[in-house]
Amino acid sequence: SKATLFDKEQGVKINFKDVAGLEEAKEEVMEIVDFLKNPKRYTALGAKIPKGALLVGPPGTGKTLLAKAVAGEAQVPFFSLSGSDFVEMFVGVGASRVRDLFKQAKEKAPCIVFIDEIDAIGRARGKNAMQGSNDERENTLNQLLTEMDGFGTNSGVIILAATNRADVLDRALLRPGRFDRQINVDLPEKEERKAIFKVHLKPLKLKDNVDIEFLASQTPGFSGAEIANLCNEAALIAARKKKKEIDKQDFLDAVDRIIAGLEKKSKIITPEE
Ligand code: ATP
Fold first, then answer.
1. What is the reported pTM?
2. Which of 65, 191, 230 to mutate for ligand 1's pocket (most ligand atoms within 8 Å of CB)?
3. How many other C-beta atoms are found inside a 10 Å radius of the C-beta of residue 94?
4. Where does ATP bind (predicted)?
């Protein structure tokens, strides 16, 4: 139903302080916050405010979080939908959903529209002719392009879209006046992992042998989502052992468990390749 797709207009309480690391990406989206807060400063000079930006990076690196933080900082509504929601829709449904979404967004402007997994609708047209749902996907993509072109540059609606595969996107999406800006959201380096740990350790009851420097050194290749998950796993392990505080060993056990989980996942995938 309509509600399942668009009920995510939230009173967003996420701010930039909730997004650790990603300094460059934050710097870039700050401009968007300013467009939303002070549109007149731009329009008075005759500038056209960009309609959208693409957040590009691996899963779990904070793209959704960053988009919510933009809405939070600008204090505007946040609408979201996922490209994968559109994949199995009947003919005409995807396109009408896109129309509905933009209608709602225009009514609530200024606002942010966030499209997660845009590659699910935005893959280059005419390449996957084997897939049955392809026509419908193309209809949906065409509707999205039509909507983006249709609403005025200074309508107050800014679309942020996330993908981990910018290379597969239809070039039409990347043209000036559409998603003409790309913002990289990469896996965190050690210093950034420390900052992410700081955010996610804050609500936890820790023993004083838990050292952020050490945790960051033990987690190369972890995304922000995996770090958040690790912190919670450590808390669960400590609780199961009826501890009063979470200690270093709980974190080490949680790292082992998460790495074992990741290895299992890749083993399941490998034989099919
Ligand atoms: P996907 O591509 O899988 O949708 P994503 O890039 O949108 O992932 P998020 O959904 O934003 O990732 O991140 C998931 C969770 O991981 C966040 O809600 C947050 O708890 C944590 N997280 C990820 N990145 C960061 C970060 N930079 N700072 C703090 N927390 C983070």
1. 0.87
2. 65
3. 26
4. 57-64
